[in-house]
Amino acid sequence: MDPLLLAALVGIATTLVLFSGIPVGIGLLVISVGFLMIFDGVGSLPLLPEILFGKLESFEVLAIPMFILMGAVVASSRAGGDLYSALDRWLTRVPGGLVISNLGACAIFSALSGSSPATCAAIGKMGIPAMRERGFPDTVASGSIAAGGTLGILIPPSVTMIIYGISTETSIGRLFLAGLLPGLMVTALFMTWSLYSTWRQGHAGTALASVSYSWKEKFEILPRILPFLVIIAAVLFALYGGVATPSETAGVGALFCLITAVIVYRMWQPGKIWHILRDTTRESVMILLIIGAAGLFSYMLSSLFITQSIAHWISDLDVNRWVLMAFINVFLLISGFFLPPVAVILMSAPILLPVIINAGFDPYWFAVILTINMEIGLITPPVGLNLYVINGIAPDIRLQTILKGAMPYVGCMFVAILILCVFPEIATWLPNAMIGGGR
């Protein structure tokens, strides 16, 4: 059978299986084993366990459960609430400062957790009720937190970036560096829109009139958040200073987050520790299963010459490379509407990377573009995970209202993609300056 026709069949079958509601990892296993048996015969089956577990034996994979543990510790404590409260107290005199506090807290919490849903849940529990109490519309209160939560997969350390690095065999340290400045840029765009929006709707003075804090109240909360900020700084220094590998840094960061939570928030009860370990194990196993299954899926595509044929076909297209990039962005955007970022990256990155490099694009710049597309998918239906997290926090706010509030931030992310296309150095300058060129 023609490989491109076979690729279409695989695409249709994969879509049907994943839309059936079956877990992504199991669905990829079913598709991979099914097509290998049909077109390669049962003789290929003895190789599958080795391929499946071989994908997980890399030392870099260890960073995933460690960063997840780091985020679970922070999310289970009052760190998110204290972080939000600290920014609220210090920014309360800024017009629209409460919205800025929410977004700033999301950005900092993202650096601790690396997870969008965790960021949404931790900051939203405090931020949404506070904004509603001070008269901000539900669209602003819910939309800003839903959008701010997406920063969790862009601002390092990011689990999504680790997965991209594993699937494409690129440097995770360079990926983290590539995501830092774009992450800050997206945060700045979110804050700029929020300031304009609150001013336009007449809520610029809401925070000013509602509450004020003394200098004592501003300083007394700092000791509870400074240890976590020190951990962030230490993790970033270890990563970017070449002191330790991402996996080593993640392990030490998780340990110190756990120690800090026990000391600062007195979380030494066995039940709370068990809850953290249980949630970490559950999420880690889910992601690792998807990684192993995606490795098998990639092997199936390569074994049946699908990957090579698609890459060759795309390379032979007589189109401008920016037109090609536009089509790839549309593909990623649509994929992000229906699938979680982990699945999209693991299935598409190995296929797209040779095409991207052949077209003259930087693979680390592309990782940032891909991640921003995945951010958009987190706040757009039908999946829109962050929308449902916010709805769970504030069930009286309708999904349509949350979506309406989040849409302007989708526009900010489109602007960020355009800026990165015009000025790719925003993503490539820092890793090249600190590490040098190369993959």
TrEMBL record:
An annotated Gene Ontology molecular function: transmembrane transporter activity
Transmembrane segments: 61-79, 99-124, 145-166, 172-196, 225-243, 249-265, 285-306, 326-352, 364-388, 408-430
Domain of life of the native organism: Bacteria
Membrane topology: Multi-pass membrane protein
Keyword Transport among record annotations: yes
Pfam families: DctM
InterPro entries membership: DctM, TRAP_DctM
Cellular component annotations (GO), alphabetically ordered: plasma membrane
Record domain TRAP C4-dicarboxylate transport system permease DctM subunit: where: 16-426
Record localization: Cell inner membrane
Chief location bin: membrane
PANTHER family found in the cross-reference section: C4-DICARBOXYLATE TRAP TRANSPORTER LARGE PERMEASE PROTEIN DCTM, SIALIC ACID TRAP TRANSPORTER PERMEASE PROTEIN SIAT-RELATED
Entry function: Part of the tripartite ATP-independent periplasmic (TRAP) transport system.
Protein family per UniProt: Belongs to the TRAP transporter large permease family.
Subunit details: The complex comprises the extracytoplasmic solute receptor protein and the two transmembrane proteins.
Name assigned to this protein: TRAP transporter large permease protein
